[in-house]
Amino acid sequence: MIARRMGKLDSSGIRKVFDLAREMENPVNLSIGQPHFDIPPEIKAAAIDSINQGLNHYTVTQGIPELREAVMAQVFPKGPPPGQGILITSGTSGGLLLAFLALIDPGDEVLIPDPYFVMYKHLVNLCDGKPVFVNTYPDFRLTAERIEPCITPKTKVLITNSPANPTGAVWTETEVDEIIDLTQRHDLLLISDEIYSVYTYDGPPVTAAGRCDRLLLLNGFSKSHAMTGWRLGFAIGPEEIIREMTKLQQFSFVCAPSFAQHAAIEALNLDTSNYVDEYRWKRDMIWDGLQDKYELQRPEGAFYAFPKVPCGTGQEFVAEAIKNNLLVIPGEVFSERDTHFRIAYAADNETIEQGIEILNAMV
Ligand SMILES: Cc1ncc(COP(=O)(O)O)c(C=O)c1O
Predict the structure, then answer these.
(1) Domain total for the chain?
(2) Which of 25, 189, 211, 255 measures 20 to 30 Å from 83, CA to CA?
(3) Torsion of CA 199, 313, 332, 4, to 10 degrees
(4) Which residues make Cβ contacts (< 8 Å) with residue 242, sequence separation at least 6?
């Protein structure tokens, strides 16, 4: 009855954790990958306004023109390079699904830096593509030296995510240049998932936008404005690719939620630096609190830390953490190996302090 392709989606890792977590009554929860603050009131007001004005019908598939223009102006303050299209998507996830469906033929290889955001591997598998993992342990840097040996004549796409989930790594200008140079030499398409771009703590965000022609930029409002439930993102890239993704959107999502599109124009005008400052503080709490006892790369962005487990596997460590009332996620959910665990520090300071205390007591 069920299509064979569904057999390629394996959610057992995360399911095991949630099965264990179900027993927990009031856990110290450092597992949630979304901002802990509510949507800013100005954005809520704009959404409510648009609903009250009756802007509740389908929008054009590619997204309302005012939002498309506002996003383009923010991504390319000096004007977009020629031949760039934009599609407003149902979350960055919507953009990822449409991109892979539009680009991947059976057998095409997609380079995925490991550790990775869970969805990449599954979407490539769903399209009958082959995920090829680029090992970035132990420092989680993505260098040409690490990528190049993984390239074959079948390689079509490299997907990168900076600031990164689950490691908190942020590529430097030099690294981005090196990655782009490599994709150009090998004629690959670069998909740059920059959903955490506002959360960079040690310098301005480094974007791949405008640096090369064969680039599909994905971003969204889930993390920057806590709009996870409103499902809004965007894809910017060569017109030819955006046209195909738009065609698919027409026959699937139809359009991104209308009220969220209207409210997002307000979101783009909002200064969110106070949230970023708050999360920088939380990053420092995690780093200062854990670096003595755990092997940990200093997180530079997003709201995650990815320490190595002191012994055993990530699953075993997380089972033990759960016995101590702490919920974190084992590394195998984000990786081909199970040697680390993910902390999501988008939580109030008291929860973070409790988490640090439990983790230090566990070593
Ligand atoms: C790296 C990365 N990309 C994409 C997404 C999906 O975000 P959205 O809510 O915009 O679909 C997430 C969400 O956790 C993420 O971590």
Answers:
(1) 2
(2) 255
(3) -170
(4) 62, 85, 86, 87, 235, 236
Contacts of 216 (CB under 8 A, 6+ apart): 99, 189, 190, 191, 192, 235, 236, 237, 238, 241
Mean per-residue pLDDT over the chain, rounded? 96
What residue numbers bound the domain in which 322 lies?
A: 4-39+272-362
Give pTM, 2 decimals: 0.97
| Mean pLDDT to the nearest integer, 174-195 | 96
Ligand 1 centroid, distance to 93 Cα (angstroms): 6
Q: What is the pLDDT of residues 287-325, one digit of tens each?
A: 999 999 999 999 999 999 999 999 999 999 999 999 999
Same domain, 13 and 157: no
Q: For position 140, which CATH number holds? A: 3.40.640.10
Which of 36, 88, 89, 93 should be mutated for ligand 1, with most atoms under 8 A from CB?
93
End residue of a domain, out of 269, 290, 308? 269
Query: Are 151 and 228 found together in one domain?
Result: yes
Which amino acids bring their CB within 6 angstroms of ligand 1?
A: 33, 91-93, 117, 161, 165, 193, 195, 220, 222, 228, 233
Within 64-168, strands assigned E span 84-89, 109-114, 130-135, 155-161
* Domain final residue, candidates 269, 297, 315: 269
Q: Best substitution site from 123, 171, 221, 223 to test ligand 1's pocket, by max atoms within 8 Å of Cβ? A: 223
For residue 100, how far is its CA from the centre of ligand 1 (angstroms)?
15
Both 112 and 256 in a single domain?
A: yes
Residue 111's closest CA among 71, 151, 171? Answer: 151
Q: Answer yes or no: is 16 within a domain.
A: yes
134-158, pLDDT tens digit by residue? 999 999 999 999 999 999 999 999 9
Same domain for 283 and 353, yes or no, is yes
* Claim to verify: residue 25 and residue 157 sit in the same structural domain: no
